[in-house]
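Kindly review both lines to help learners:
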Amino acid sequence: MRVVEPARDAPPGIILAGGQSRRMGDGDKFLRSLRGQPILRWVIDAVRPQTSALVLNANGDLTRLTSFGLPIMADDPPGQLGPLAGIATGLRWAAARDDYLAVFAADTPFPPDDLVHRLATALQAEDAQIAVPVSLGRQHGVFGLWRTSLRNELERAVIEDGCRKVGHFLAAHRVALVPFEAEPFDPFFNINRREDLLHAEDLAAHFQSS
C-alpha cells in the first residue's frame, strides 16, 4: 500500500490503539494481518493524508509499534481508563499545534478519505465542540474532530468523575452528527472478532483492485 505524507493545512490526529482486544484473543487485533498488511497500516495509510501530524496512542510495550514510524503516546492518565484517556492525551499534545484534534480507531481499516473534511465542515457550520460520524443509525465516538479547548474538562471528567464512556461525555456537549453512507459497505466497520477479519479480507480485495 502507498504511504502518503500528511497534509499541511489539516488538523493533527491521533489513532487510538489502547484497547485490550479481548474478543480477538491474545495480542493486539490491530496488528493482525489483512491482505499482507497489519490492520493498523491500513488505518495509517487512510488517515495520514487527512492530518498535519499523526501519533499513535497505545499502552503496554510501546516498542512493538515502532516499525510504523509514528510517535507513540501512552495514556496519561495511565491505567487502561478507556478511549477517553487516549483522547485526553491527544488533546494535550495537539493543543500546542492546533485548535482541533482528529481522532481515529485502530481497528477500523476503511475509514472515509473525506472524513476529517466533512467533520470539520459540520463542526464549523453548527458551532459544535465535537463532530462525530454516524452510519446505520449509530454514532462512532472513537472517531471525531474535537476542539482542543476541551482538554482540561475532559481530563477532569476522566480523573475526577470517573467518566469512561465516550457517549456520556458527548451527551453533555454540543456535538455535530455527520451522516455517512453505508453502501456498498459501512466505512466504520471495525474488527472485533475472527469472523470480522474474514469479512475485512473480502472488503480489502476491493481496495487493492481499485
Remarks:
- Residues 13-209 form a domain with the Spore Coat Polysaccharide Biosynthesis Protein SpsA; Chain A fold (CATH 3.90.550.10).
